[in-house]
Write a structure and sequence with these properties.
EC 1.2.5.3; seven-stranded mixed β-sheet; copper; binds copper (I) ion; Aldehyde Oxidoreductase, domain 4; Aldehyde Oxidoreductase, domain 3; binds ligand PCD
Length: about 800
């Protein structure tokens, strides 16, 4: 071999395929300010719409007077529920099977609810118009405390539902009740509790928060009257679903709707749902015949489009005296706000919360969830967790720590004792899931050895003794968290959105010169799909990733897919990509056999092409096969080289991880310091380790934000008191701790390349690690559970309540 012939290693490296830390191709435009976001779009004659919003959390709308607003220079129209009724769009269906007002119809049910839509020649005129719209309200008592929602005398929020005793998910028990969802074996679980040596019971709340992506929700709608076509550019995580929903509710033929998601500045679940702004901009464009832009501001984003969490979880664990868990019982009070607009697969009113048995071998469990209405914003979204998984992980990981405390056992040791063992996979959980693969002990041991867990516990014991002797005012906490995620929604047998199965898709088209374009039903919001999807194709078909262009987000060109959220892109679309590539490869093999004049079975794959078995010099590269596909295919074969795959996954994937947070808290000020944070993730086969690391950094930062301060809080009259970044904790580089990342690799047995999702994992595992660290720090003073978020003030108050300031 001369030195001009590349080695096998060089040929492999040239592909930048699976496992390569390939630089993100999208960053070339992002880092130079050349991204193309919705707000960059400026169409000729484009108008701007903005909302009149309710200052009240609950009020009757007596009248809306637009007369003065219409006199404001530039204001062209004021749309109200009455206008929308003429086109039957005053209310819209939600993903959760409820209905939601697009604009206030008779009453308002949460602060900043959309009341009227002012359309003007520019944003300033629209805002001036808003100030001139006169709305007469008659305030009603607001229902804010979820625990009072089902009181006998609780105010009736949803007058449209009066007398309806069943909802989308079964019977309703009360006028503010949405659904009750139960899973598991109640009798067996009750019996386990009766027999238990030790039980714990704690009300664990996961407070309301918000994903607040850098770019808020927005769209531009343009209706072409002549063609009868509607084009919508928007910040959609699921563009195809938006097209179908618009077609169904606006009664426009689906082929005449073009939905385009351009570059998106972060989604985090916020951009899954359908919001009144989209409907109003579309209607305004149809009415005016001009393109209409709607862009949320920060306060609107935080207070009106969606929320996350707000789960109040009464958690009970039964165990033997030596620490073997024997039963889990959880009741959740789920505060869904004014309309049930939670973004979950349709059959799952509380998402996949039944993953709450976590990483532990619970012989039996029982779960019940009551969903309720309150005077708060609707639209429960995942916020970096697949459908209520972060709530479930927080519930069980806090629960295990509380149990360890009661048993006087080390929390890590309790976990090791109860883990599902490697040989138990595929594992059937007591609440109905089939975990595909895992090796929890190995991951946990690696974490404990890397951070020298035993030494940390020793140091903590010494510090506690010193604290008790009055020698220090600092306490130390070790927050252990071991999570199991469930991502990849999902198998058509249990996942659909409004009846559409949750498959995903990929289409690959190879061009004659050995380059190609690939399109998917997913949509990157920053995750780096343009980079990673090409890596999968590179390894599968031996074409350098640089020669594959990845395009997502245009419903006219991309095959139908259910979009990007719930870390489903890698498990579902990632599989479709590999399958489409394999179809390309199969055709390529026939072409190569024909050209090399051998039988197909005499060929074997070798990095970037086929070679004849036993004759290594007789080869045909994939690049050459691409050319041949356009001029000399075997007789009877169609020319060209393209393939499409729609992939219905046989199961979810179950990533997992072992995290630990080491924290020091000054009891006199409540100020905490994250001394160390170590995160080991197992997401099966790793496509791009650098992107994974970035995903983990981002997810941990969001977990840190949520656990340590971020909150959407209402006062008793229903005012949002954390409605801007002045009050809503958004960590910057200054507050964010240093992250140490690590991994193990346990491939998914059913995924074509063995990959599981990872984007959400750090949030799911991170929140309990932080909260357990705070709780662990205070536990020796006699507390069992302190509610999140753990900001300085709450830490100080916890210290005070535990009597450390007693003179
Ligand atoms: N094994 C593996 C896995 C994964 N990967 C990578 O990583 C990423 C991610 O992935 P996933 O996990 O599959 O996911 P997706 O689906 O793609 O995405 C989603 C997610 O993602 C995350 N991340 C992120 N990033 C950014 N930058 N931005 C954003 O926004 C975001 N978001 C967030 C969220 S929230 Mo939800 O929506 O709540 O449900 S869900 C979510 C991509 O790129 C991929 O490729 C790799 O490499 N490997
Ligand atoms: Cu979630």
């Amino acid at each position: 071999m001369n030195n001009l012939t590349p080695t096998r290693e060089q040929r492999t490296a040239a592909l930048e395929g699976l496992g390569c830390k390939r630089k993100r191709v999208e960053d070339i435009r992002f880092t130079q300010g050349k991204g193309n976001y919705v707000d960059d779009l400026k169409l000729p004659g484009m108008l701007h719409g903005d909302f009149v919003r309710s200052p009240h959390a609950h009020a009757r709308v007596k009248s809306i007077n637009s007369e003065e607003a219409l006199k404001v220079p530039g204001v062209l129209a004021v749309i109200t529920a009455e206008t929308l009724k003429t086109v039957n769009l005053a209310w819209m269906p939600t993903l959760a099977g409820d209905v939601q007002m697009v604009l206030a119809d008779g009453k308002v049910l949460f602060q900043n609810q959309e009341v009227a839509f002012v359309v003007a020649t520019d944003r300033y005129a629209a805002d001036d118009g808003i100030n001139k719209v006169v709305v007469e309200y008659e305030p009603l008592p607001a229902l804010i405390d979820p625990f009072k929602a089902m009181d006998k005398d609780a105010p009736v929020l949803r007058e449209d539902l009066v007398g309806k005793t069943t909802g989308a998910h079964g019977p309703r028990k009360h006028h503010n009740h949405i659904f009750e969802w139960t899973v598991g074996d109640k009798d067996l679980t009750d019996a386990a509790f009766k027999k238990a040596d030790v039980t714990i019971k704690e009300m664990i709340s996961y407070h309301r928060t918000h994903p607040s992506p850098l770019e808020t929700c927005q769209c531009v709608c343009s209706f072409d009257k002549i063609r009868g076509e509607l084009t919508i550019w928007g910040t959609f995580q699921a563009p195809h679903v938006i097209r179908t929903v618009v077609s169904l509710i606006a009664k426009l033929p689906e082929q005449k709707i073009h939905v385009i998601s351009p570059d998106i500045g972060g989604g985090f679940g916020n951009k899954v749902g359908a919001y009144p702004g989209y409907i109003c901009a579309a209607v305004a464009s149809i009415v005016t015949g001009k393109p209409v832009k709607w862009v949320e501001d920060r306060i609107e984003n935080l207070t009106a489009t969606s929320f996350a969490r707000d789960y109040h979880m009464t958690t009970e664990i039964a165990a033997t005296k030596d620490g073997k868990v024997t039963g889990l019982r959880v009741h959740v009070l789920a505060d869904h706000g004014a309309f049930d607009a939670c973004a979950d697969p349709s059959k799952w009113p509380a998402g996949f919360f039944n993953i709450v048995t976590g990483s532990y071998d619970f012989p039996t469990a029982h779960l019940s969830v009551d969903g309720i209405y309150t005077n708060k914003a609707p639209g429960g979204v995942a916020y970096r967790c697949s459908f209520r998984v972060t709530e479930a992980a927080y519930c069980i990981e806090r629960g295990m720590d509380i149990l360890a405390q009661k048993l006087g056992m080390d929390p890590a040791e309790l976990r090791l004792k109860n883990f599902i063992k490697a040989e138990q996979f595929p594992y059937h959980s007591a609440l109905g899931w089939e975990y595909d693969s895992g090796d929890y002990h190995t991951a946990m041991m690696k974490m404990m050895e890397t951070v020298k867990y035993a030494e940390l516990r020793k140091e903590q014991a010494e510090k506690r003794a010193a604290f008790k002797r009055g020698e220090t005012r600092e306490i130390m906490g070790l927050g252990v968290s071991f999570f199991t995620e469930i991502v990849g929604a999902g198998p058509s047998k249990n996942c659909d959105i409004l009846g559409i199965a949750m498959f995903d898709s990929c289409e690959i088209r190879m061009h004659p010169t050995g380059a190609g374009i690939a399109r998917m039903g997913t949509k990157s919001q920053g995750q780096g799909h343009e980079t990673t999807w090409a890596q999968i194709i590179a390894t599968e078909i031996g074409i350098p990733a640089d020669n594959i262009m990845v395009e997502e987000g245009n419903t006219d060109t991309a095959p139908y897919g259910l979009g990007t959220y719930g870390s489903r892109s890698t498990p579902v679309a990632g599989a479709a990509i590999a399958m489409a590539a394999r179809k390309i490869k199969a055709k390529a093999q026939m072409i190569a056999a024909y050209r090399l004049e051998v039988h197909e079975d005499d060929l074997e794959w070798d990095i970037d092409g086929f070679r004849v078995k036993g004759l290594p010099e007789k080869t045909m590269s994939m690049k050459d096969i691409c050319w041949a596909a356009y001029n000399s295919v075997p007789p009877g074969m169609e020319p060209g080289l393209e393939a499409v795959s729609y992939y219905d996954p046989p199961n979810m994937t179950y990533p997992f991880g072992a995290y630990i947070c080491v924290m020091d808290i000054d009891v006199d000020t409540g100020v905490y310091k994250v001394r160390r944070f170590y995160a080991l993730d197992d997401c099966g086969t790793r496509i791009n380790p650098m992107i994974i690391e970035g995903q983990v950094h981002g997810g941990l930062t969001e977990a840190f934000a949520i656990a340590m301060g971020q909150e959407i809080r209402y006062d008793e009259t229903g005012n949002v008191v954390t409605g801007s970044f002045m009050d809503f904790f958004m960590p910057t580089a200054v507050e964010t701790p240093h992250w140490e990342t690590d991994f193990t690799v346990t491939p998914s047995p059913h995924h074509p390349i063995g990959a599981k999702g990872v984007g959400e994992s750090p949030n799911v595992g991170g929140v309990p690690a932080f909260s357990n660290a705070v709780n662990d720090a205070f536990s020796f003073l006699g507390s069992t559970h302190i509610q999140m978020p753990h900001d300085y003030w709450r830490n100080w108050r916890a210290a005070k309540n535990l009597g450390v300031f007693a003179a």
